[in-house]
TrEMBL record:
Its cofactor is FAD. SUPFAM superfamilies: FAD-binding/transporter-associated domain-like, FAD-linked oxidases, C-terminal domain. Belongs to the FAD-binding oxidoreductase/transferase type 4 family. GO terms for biological process: respiratory electron transport chain. Residues 52-233 form the FAD-binding PCMH-type domain. It comes from the Bacteria. This is Hydroxyacid dehydrogenase. The keyword Flavoprotein applies. The keyword DNA repair does not apply. Gene3D superfamilies: 3.30.465.10, 3.30.70.2190, 3.30.70.2740, Uridine Diphospho-n-acetylenolpyruvylglucosamine Reductase, domain 2 (3.30.43.10), Vanillyl-alcohol Oxidase, Chain A, domain 4 (1.10.45.10). One of its GO terms (molecular function) is catalytic activity. Keywords: FAD, Flavoprotein, Plasmid.
Amino acid sequence: MQTSGQTSGQTALRPDFETAVLAPIRAIVGDRGLITDPDTMKPFMESWRDGWVGRSPAVVLPDSTEALAAVVRICAETRTPIVPQGGNTGLTGASQPHADGSEIVISTNRLNRIREIDIDNDTMTVEAGCILANIQNAARDVGRLFPMSLAAEGSCQIGGNIATNAGGVQVLRYGNMRNLVAGLEVVLPDGRIWDGLRGLRKDNAGYDLKQIFIGSEGTLGIVTAAVLKLSPLPRATATALVAVSAPSDAVDLLTRAKGVAGDRIVTFELIQRACIDVARRHVPDVPDPLRDRYPWYVLVELADQDSGNRLAEMLESILEAGMEAGEVLDGVVAASKAQADSLWRIREGIPEGQKREGVSFKHDVSVPISRVARFLDRTDAALERACPGIRPFSFGHLGDGNIHYNPIQAEDGDPAEWRAKLATVNAIVHDIVVDLGGSISAEHGIGRLRIDEMPRYKSPVELEMMATLKRAFDPHNIMNPGKILHSSGVAP
């Protein structure tokens, strides 16, 4: 279990906390909007995975942007640090308070209205607490697609997706959250509201301020609403799972597919055989996709507006050409939605299976697509030398170079001994990633998980630019302190 000590850079609660902070907050949000009972607060204190646990004197649940802004003003005046929290599905400890109990949690759970759908403009204006799956369904109901798709979509909130610049399985075609947001509404650390809810594709009037907050993990302000970009709803999809002998063959197949299908390629996922074995061992109804076993697999999906058979024919022609070139060893093309769902069940079962398999070292990394195979070969070899018996376990979004490189402890290894190797494994993996021109965080963010690694992999110039931005927006360091960056010289 990961707990966090006094790393937020803040002092303990002020003696008059009840009267100076809680009482005026209660007057704004009412009893329904303020939780102080430890048992009721518990779900807000703990992460769903990886054991991040914190403490807080209160969880605040405003039901409007104005109420949230008023709460932040009280926190700013009293120098009370804030941890913004959405669906609490993050993976880096960014949405849990520290263990010192000095921070209040502000949850966006009650900011859950869809304010407007503009079909002609292909935009939807939503509040930060809207569940991602509900947004997808609302778009589908009017014949549109909101393409952000990830495993936690049934519980994650769009505000958190924006704050972490979420990726997912359709980034190859549609981009990550930076590409899907047209405008934002944000409560700043002093309690002012910035209304940038403009549904424009072109706006060159000065700095693009929304991009400052996308991916900032709640350290510069709290996103309260967003204008999202919608796309036409595909009328047809074609899905296949194919076997390849090595990641380099998967890269060659991706290049071939791009040349034929272009932006019809929605998903191109690389899966190591060990991932399928672990998913099948621990998760019900995960199929073994092919008769024989192969070292690597690719899950590919095309989508188009054409409702006929041409998409499936196009996919089959790509795979046939790949087989003739030696890139594809075997494969299956889904003949129905049920078969496609069964193939997707393999990919979706991997994280759950891994969670139950033992100690794993999770790395959400990206490298240029052309260097993915080199990254996997180099890192597997380096880890085997440093940690004999460690089990390679790699899967992810080959189409955008984002690999979840999550090696697992030796089968008969002692979990405590393997946990002690975390720093060694991280350094090996991340050193190779950066040497290949990659990033130590592709889509999960920095939070607390990677904060101490930032000075090793970011230049002093980059860190100072980020710290300058933090000081400018949050001079008293009350907004999610101790996440992404340490205090960075902000005023006490």
